[in-house]
Amino acid sequence: MKTNLVKLNRPILKVSSLIFGYLFWLIIAQNQHISISKEIPLFYYGLSKNLKADNAPEHISAIISGKRIDLTNFNSSENSSHVDISNIEATGSYNIDVQKENIFLHNQFKLIDYWPSSLSIQIDQRSNT
Amino acid sequence: MEPFISKLLIFSWKDLVEVAFFVSAFYYFSTWLSKDKSKNLVLWFYGYSSLLILTHFTKLTNVNQFLIAAFPAAIMLFFMLHQRELQKNFVTFQNIKPKFKNLDWIDIILRAAVTAMDNNKQFLCLIEGKDSLKGFINTSLRADSELNESLIDVLIKSPLFSQEKIVWVSNGKLLAINAEWDLESKKVWVAEKSKLEEWKQNGILFSSKTDAIIFKAYPGKRCFDIIAKGKISECVTVNNGLSIINQYVRKNYSQIYKKEYENKSSKVKQANS
To answer: Does the CB of B38 have a partner CB in chain A at under 8 Å?
Structure first.
């Protein structure tokens, strides 16, 4: 029987195998739940207007669990941590605890772990200029 | 680089290993499928895979789930259809019912064998029956021509003609000369200590698995060795060789020969009346 055979040489097979292989993996892995490490922005609130926090850490690291496809779209603006430092009234060096309740994540994600749980911040007088 | 890789949903080296696994599996399977020269198995496989991927991303859930469930069966089907697997199990395609232009083609081929003997050459011939041997034979000199004496004389007398190789004939047509068996598992079954010549071993194998007939003419002995249905008839004269081969060929195409014979007889009767 006569057939028109398309000649597929090795480079074409390699490229198409790369594309198909990746897509096959993607289909299986897309909705898979995984855990990854992410940097979450850290915000301080409640500090008196005449005080400022110098060299305070701006991020904490966290292990977050979620669907792979959702983790690709992890948005820092929707996921952050907020620490209340309104009880600080004078300048000096302070140790602040970061609790789980301070970390706010989108419903798609689950917090597995985070660090550091305790931060050291320097509070100075704000200059009136 | 990392944001780009993250966009591909790859977050760690383990993901890369997994992707590499799928890519390698796909590549090696495609390479194996591409070795089948008679069918476009690679394209069928790519088509099936593309359909599976497309139905997933277009959220055609039912079709996608069906294709995923049928995927193992599809892979098995590719295995079964692959030429090499068919070769190992000696599964042949069937030739379409031929229309003989010349019923005396067996005479022609035997006369060619005699001509070869007259030219002090051996003549090894494979007569294919209903079972197609395409896929089991390799040749660089295809003819695909109606058998006629002049053509075959020219080919036999040509310096390119190799008396150790096969003249491949099928249903009144000369398919090729200088053909060779193409078998992966050839070495497995050819007995190392057998006294039988290799062409005879191959002949016994193929004639027992298919309806092919193989014969060889020896110039020194002026006789034929004929192999059909796994049996060897050694040093047969030309006349006996003709009747043996005719007997097997006519068995394969008894209806065609009967009809042609009736047509011939009625023409003769009309001419006489």
So the answer is: yes
The DSSP 8-state label assigned to residue B272 in this structure reads H
Please give the structure tokens belonging to residue B91. 């599964």
Residue B99 has pLDDT above 70, yes or no: no
Computed over every residue of chain B, the mean pLDDT equals: 80
Cβ contacts of B42 on chain A, cutoff 8 Å? 6, 8, 13
Q: Do B9 and A17 touch (CB under 8 A)?
A: no
Omega of the bond leading into A116 within 30 degrees of 0 (cis): yes
Centroid of chain to Cα B76 = 22
Tell me how far apart the 2 most distant CA atoms of chain A are, in Å.
92
Which residue among A4, A13, A27 places its CB closest to the CB of B53? Answer: A27
Please give the residue of chain A at the shortest CA–CA distance from B31. A13
Does the pLDDT at position B177 exceed 50? yes
Q: Do B11 and A13 touch (CB under 8 A)?
A: no
Q: Indicate the residue of A10, A14, A36 with minimum beta-carbon distance to B11.
A: A36
Q: Catalogue the long-range contacts made by B103-108 (C-beta closer than 8 Å, 24 or more residues apart).
A: B103/B172, B103/B257, B103/B260, B103/B264, B105/B147, B105/B169, B105/B172, B106/B242, B106/B245, B106/B246, B106/B249, B107/B242, B108/B147, B108/B148, B108/B149, B108/B152
By percentage, how much of chain B surpasses pLDDT 90?
Answer: 19
A44 and A72 Cβ atoms separated by less than 8 Å: no
| Interface predicted TM-score (ipTM) | 0.76
Nearest Cβ partner of B34 from A1, A3, A13? Answer: A13
